[in-house]
Specification:
Radius of gyration: 20 Å
Strand content: 5-15%
Number of helices: 7
Structural class: mainly alpha
Helix content: 55-70%
Order of helices and strands: EEHHHHHHH
Largest sheet: 2 strands, antiparallel
Number of strands: 2
Strand order of the largest sheet: 1-2
Distance between the termini: 34 Å
Protein backbone atom coordinates (compact mmCIF):
# COMPACT_ATOMS: atom_id res chain seq x y z
CA UNK A 1 0.00 0.00 0.00
CA UNK A 2 2.90 2.40 0.64
CA UNK A 3 3.67 2.41 -3.08
CA UNK A 4 0.07 2.93 -4.14
CA UNK A 5 -0.64 6.42 -5.45
CA UNK A 6 -1.77 9.21 -3.17
CA UNK A 7 -2.01 11.51 -6.19
CA UNK A 8 -1.44 11.42 -9.92
CA UNK A 9 0.10 14.29 -11.86
CA UNK A 10 -0.41 13.66 -15.56
CA UNK A 11 1.11 10.17 -15.89
CA UNK A 12 3.27 10.31 -12.75
CA UNK A 13 2.15 8.83 -9.46
CA UNK A 14 3.03 10.31 -6.10
CA UNK A 15 3.16 7.39 -3.70
CA UNK A 16 1.50 7.25 -0.33
CA UNK A 17 4.89 6.65 1.26
CA UNK A 18 6.26 9.82 -0.38
CA UNK A 19 3.21 11.73 0.82
CA UNK A 20 3.49 10.29 4.34
CA UNK A 21 7.17 11.22 4.47
CA UNK A 22 6.31 14.77 3.43
CA UNK A 23 3.54 14.98 6.04
CA UNK A 24 5.97 13.76 8.69
CA UNK A 25 8.56 16.35 7.69
CA UNK A 26 5.98 19.15 7.82
CA UNK A 27 4.71 17.89 11.17
CA UNK A 28 8.21 17.67 12.64
CA UNK A 29 9.02 21.21 11.48
CA UNK A 30 5.74 22.56 12.86
CA UNK A 31 6.19 20.81 16.21
CA UNK A 32 9.71 22.25 16.44
CA UNK A 33 8.07 25.67 16.10
CA UNK A 34 5.52 24.93 18.81
CA UNK A 35 2.56 23.49 16.88
CA UNK A 36 0.35 20.80 18.41
CA UNK A 37 0.70 17.68 16.25
CA UNK A 38 -2.24 16.06 18.05
CA UNK A 39 -4.62 18.76 16.80
CA UNK A 40 -6.79 17.12 14.10
CA UNK A 41 -7.12 20.40 12.18
CA UNK A 42 -3.35 20.82 12.12
CA UNK A 43 -2.86 17.21 11.01
CA UNK A 44 -5.34 17.73 8.16
CA UNK A 45 -3.57 20.95 7.19
CA UNK A 46 -0.19 19.17 7.11
CA UNK A 47 -1.60 16.48 4.83
CA UNK A 48 -3.18 19.01 2.48
CA UNK A 49 -0.01 21.08 2.41
CA UNK A 50 2.12 17.99 1.72
CA UNK A 51 -0.05 16.90 -1.22
CA UNK A 52 -0.12 20.43 -2.66
CA UNK A 53 3.65 20.76 -2.34
CA UNK A 54 4.31 17.38 -3.96
CA UNK A 55 1.83 18.02 -6.80
CA UNK A 56 3.21 21.51 -7.47
CA UNK A 57 6.79 20.22 -7.43
CA UNK A 58 5.89 17.48 -9.90
CA UNK A 59 4.10 19.94 -12.18
CA UNK A 60 7.15 22.20 -12.10
CA UNK A 61 9.48 19.25 -12.71
CA UNK A 62 7.43 18.18 -15.72
CA UNK A 63 7.39 21.74 -17.06
CA UNK A 64 11.16 21.99 -16.62
CA UNK A 65 11.76 18.74 -18.47
CA UNK A 66 9.37 19.91 -21.19
CA UNK A 67 11.43 23.10 -21.53
CA UNK A 68 14.61 21.05 -21.92
CA UNK A 69 16.08 21.66 -18.47
CA UNK A 70 18.59 19.09 -17.26
CA UNK A 71 20.71 18.30 -14.25
CA UNK A 72 23.99 16.51 -14.81
CA UNK A 73 25.15 13.66 -12.60
CA UNK A 74 28.12 15.87 -11.65
CA UNK A 75 25.83 18.68 -10.47
CA UNK A 76 23.78 16.25 -8.42
CA UNK A 77 26.88 14.64 -6.91
CA UNK A 78 28.42 18.01 -6.06
CA UNK A 79 25.23 19.23 -4.36
CA UNK A 80 24.79 15.93 -2.50
CA UNK A 81 28.37 16.19 -1.21
CA UNK A 82 27.83 19.83 -0.18
CA UNK A 83 24.78 18.79 1.85
CA UNK A 84 26.61 15.80 3.36
CA UNK A 85 29.62 17.89 4.33
CA UNK A 86 27.44 20.77 5.53
CA UNK A 87 25.73 18.63 8.14
CA UNK A 88 28.84 16.89 9.40
CA UNK A 89 29.58 13.95 7.11
CA UNK A 90 28.11 10.71 5.86
CA UNK A 91 27.02 9.42 9.28
CA UNK A 92 25.12 12.61 10.08
CA UNK A 93 23.49 12.58 6.65
CA UNK A 94 22.44 8.95 7.09
CA UNK A 95 20.96 9.78 10.50
CA UNK A 96 19.04 12.75 9.07
CA UNK A 97 17.73 10.71 6.16
CA UNK A 98 16.60 7.99 8.56
CA UNK A 99 14.98 10.59 10.82
CA UNK A 100 12.92 11.92 7.93
CA UNK A 101 12.34 8.57 6.23
CA UNK A 102 14.27 9.61 3.12
CA UNK A 103 16.41 7.31 1.01
CA UNK A 104 19.58 8.39 -0.73
CA UNK A 105 17.90 7.76 -4.08
CA UNK A 106 14.95 9.99 -3.20
CA UNK A 107 17.33 12.66 -1.83
CA UNK A 108 19.28 12.63 -5.09
CA UNK A 109 16.01 12.84 -7.04
CA UNK A 110 15.04 15.87 -4.94
CA UNK A 111 18.40 17.46 -5.74
CA UNK A 112 17.85 16.80 -9.44
CA UNK A 113 14.39 18.35 -9.21
CA UNK A 114 15.89 21.37 -7.45
CA UNK A 115 18.20 21.95 -10.43
CA UNK A 116 15.42 21.38 -12.96
CA UNK A 117 12.95 23.70 -11.25
CA UNK A 118 15.55 26.40 -10.62
CA UNK A 119 16.48 26.24 -14.30
CA UNK A 120 12.82 26.66 -15.20
CA UNK A 121 12.44 29.66 -12.90
CA UNK A 122 15.64 31.18 -14.21
CA UNK A 123 14.32 30.90 -17.77
CA UNK A 124 10.83 32.21 -16.99
CA UNK A 125 11.41 34.87 -14.36
CA UNK A 126 13.55 37.89 -15.12
CA UNK A 127 15.01 38.70 -11.71
CA UNK A 128 17.10 41.48 -13.21
CA UNK A 129 13.91 43.34 -14.17
CA UNK A 130 12.78 43.53 -10.55
CA UNK A 131 12.91 47.10 -9.38
CA UNK A 132 13.32 47.95 -5.73
CA UNK A 133 12.55 51.42 -4.48
CA UNK A 134 14.13 53.23 -1.57
CA UNK A 135 10.68 53.29 0.06
CA UNK A 136 10.42 49.49 -0.15
CA UNK A 137 13.83 49.04 1.44
CA UNK A 138 12.98 51.47 4.23
CA UNK A 139 9.57 49.86 4.80
CA UNK A 140 11.08 46.37 5.03
CA UNK A 141 13.73 47.60 7.48
CA UNK A 142 11.10 49.25 9.68
CA UNK A 143 8.81 46.20 9.49
CA UNK A 144 11.72 44.12 10.79
CA UNK A 145 11.93 46.48 13.75
CA UNK A 146 14.56 48.90 12.51
CA UNK A 147 16.98 50.62 14.84
CA UNK A 148 14.38 50.47 17.64
CA UNK A 149 14.73 46.67 17.63
CA UNK A 150 18.49 46.92 17.87
CA UNK A 151 19.20 46.32 14.19
CA UNK A 152 22.29 47.94 12.73
CA UNK A 153 21.66 51.21 10.89
CA UNK A 154 20.00 50.75 7.50
CA UNK A 155 23.10 52.05 5.73
CA UNK A 156 25.08 49.09 7.14
CA UNK A 157 22.55 46.40 6.20
CA UNK A 158 21.11 47.94 3.05
CA UNK A 159 22.48 45.20 0.76
CA UNK A 160 20.94 42.45 2.91
CA UNK A 161 17.61 44.27 3.17
CA UNK A 162 17.55 44.89 -0.58
CA UNK A 163 18.37 41.22 -1.21
CA UNK A 164 15.47 40.17 1.01
CA UNK A 165 13.05 42.53 -0.76
CA UNK A 166 14.25 41.13 -4.10
CA UNK A 167 13.78 37.58 -2.80
CA UNK A 168 10.22 38.33 -1.70
CA UNK A 169 9.39 39.86 -5.08
CA UNK A 170 10.89 36.82 -6.83
CA UNK A 171 8.73 34.56 -4.66
CA UNK A 172 5.64 36.48 -5.76
CA UNK A 173 6.63 36.00 -9.41
CA UNK A 174 7.31 32.31 -8.81
CA UNK A 175 3.93 31.95 -7.13
CA UNK A 176 2.24 33.65 -10.06
CA UNK A 177 4.04 31.38 -12.50
Amino acid sequence: EANSPAARVNDVDISKSECNSSVQQLTDMAVAQGADAADPAAAAQFKTQAIETLVNAELLRQAAVGEGMTATPEQIETRFNEIRDGIGGAEQLAARMAEFGVTEASWRRDIENEFLIQGLFDSKIDSDAIEISEAEVAAFYEKAGGAAAGLPPLAEVRDQVEAQVRFEKEQVLIGEY
